[in-house]
Write a structure and sequence with these properties.
elongated; about 210 residues; 9 helices; single chain
Length: about 210
């Protein structure tokens, strides 16, 4: 037997009371998620653009043709980058540049502090390794070569083995530990292609090998 029109309406009302509100709530929630995600993405893009502009200004003031960076301006821009975009790649790039400028000005303690801050919490592995190797060079310049070597102890990612081992070799030469230096240079060479292994690294190996002859 077919339903009457009133019965059909009653069924629809009953279904709506049971399902209509959850459907509306779910749809509203979905809209909030979608628009919230889009807003977050736009914020991320705007933030990255702002950091990029600041970093470009920082580069222009630190990498100048005559080699004389505007130290005050560099410090100002780097400080703003680190304050407004703390922990970001750009903020850590700023720290690396500040360290470079500090080294050029003979302010090794300042350079050390900047590099240590990046090393303590790097934004990625590459920035961490750059900070580690540059910090080791600063320590060596402060006659803390043993401390620098300890910083380079342990295994590095394959992409960084050659650079780290060559640096270890340089530090060991400074300490007059030629045999260990030669081992480090050979390890660096082994991590490179045949084409890349020629040049300065090979000269260092040859010089040490001649010394042992």
């Amino acid at each position: 037997m077919s339903r009457t029109e009133d019965e059909e309406l009653a069924v629809i009302r009953d279904w709506w009371q049971r399902n209509g509100k959850p459907l509306l709530t779910g749809s509203a929630l979905a809209l909030v998620v979608v628009f919230g995600w889009q807003a977050w993405q736009k914020h991320q893009v705007a933030e990255a653009q702002g950091a990029s502009v600041l970093y470009q200004q920082l580069l222009e003031n630190s990498l100048v043709a005559d080699g004389q960076a505007d130290v005050g301006k560099v410090a100002e821009l780097a400080g703003k980058l680190k304050a407004d975009y703390a922990g970001s790649h750009y903020a850590q790039y700023a720290s690396l540049l500040l360290a470079k400028v500090a080294v050029e000005a003979g302010k090794l303690d300042d350079a050390r502090a900047e590099l240590q801050a990046v090393l303590d919490k790097p934004a990625d592995a590459t920035l961490g390794e750059l900070a580690r190797q540059r910090l080791a060079r600063v320590l060596a310049a402060q006659d803390k070569t043993e401390e620098a070597l300890k910083l380079l102890a342990g295994d590095a990612d394959q992409a960084f083995v050659a650079a780290r081992e060559e640096l270890k070799g340089d530090l060991l030469v400074k300490l007059e530990r030629s045999d260990e230096a030669l081992q480090a240079y050979e390890k660096a060479k082994a991590a490179l292609t045949a084409e890349a292994a020629v040049g300065g690294l090979q000269i260092k190996i040859d010089d040490l090998a001649k010394g042992d002859a």
